[in-house]
Amino acid sequence: MQSLFGKTLEELEQIISDLKQPRFVAKQLAQWLYEKRATEFAEMTNLSLKLRTSLQDNYTIGRYAPIKYAQSTDGTKKYLFKVAENQFVETVYLPENDRHTLCISTQAGCKMGCAFCMTGTLGFHGNLSAGEILNQIYSIPESKLITNIVVMGEGEPCDNIDNVLTALKILTSGYALAWSPKRITVSSVGYVPGLRRLLEETDCHIAISLHNPIARERAEIMPIEKRYPIEQVVQLLRQYDFAHQRRLSFEYICFHGQNDTIRYANALRKLLNGLPSRVNLIKFHQTESNIHTTTASELCSSDEQQMLWLRDYLSDSGITCTIRRSRGEDILAACGMLVNALTGHPNEGKNLKNDNNKIK
Q: Which residues are catalytic, by number?
């Protein structure tokens, strides 16, 4: 049966109309689904018994709990959701003082094929629906504590843009949680068609996975560069206002001797010149899953001193730059480590079919 969770108010209005009910009932239904967080039709007490019975006979609510979780020594939690037969995604909860951030996934696996990212080793196995995206937010035990969402988990959000936009529309709507888009950051490797829609149709913060400012070298670790060069991505970003409330950041994993020297710092300065943004430096997390790829085996993380130098050099050059603290590395929950391996076995809970849909 079709799930109601993930339907917009307009879609619920059509369902209610088909059931010969007044239009206002759709808003009541939406409020039960998203604001009151109902998980059973029986809870929807201001709907008639006849309507509740009809809904139960024809639809499911579409909420489901994670099947496993792991907790890091630093307090990070990672949850495993089953989204289809042999398809799983991970969601990471990052509590810190009064800030409670949830990192959510948008695809089962990923087709972008970035050499340093463990998720890419899974291959691509499907887009998550809007309901499956939202379910990660609603169904973890800490759901009501969440203050910020980062759409940076498994998958490329801009490659599943229809469902991502629907999920964001619901999340920020008055009939749901009425979240400010300024509490949401969406990440992209620079998949331009979806990124353009994200920029036009939302006010969410944007994070771009950059990792190397030199096109030829970026293409060696990020195949997307061959289709949508980072220069083109930056040109697109320059058309939008990031000087006020909406923020733009660039994620930059630091590889020893590969992108952390003055040559790359100056290339970053040139690429981002005059663009209001922040560069987040990130430690490279090398693991058994990504070390076996030809390119990743040649990569290792910059040491702390080099990252501090790069941060200070860029900051002194007028580029706001910070070093992001790694969280959850011991449970494979840090940046680039999501591979559905909650018990430490990289193959657990993943679809092992070969992937024929990677970006080339």
A: 90, 335
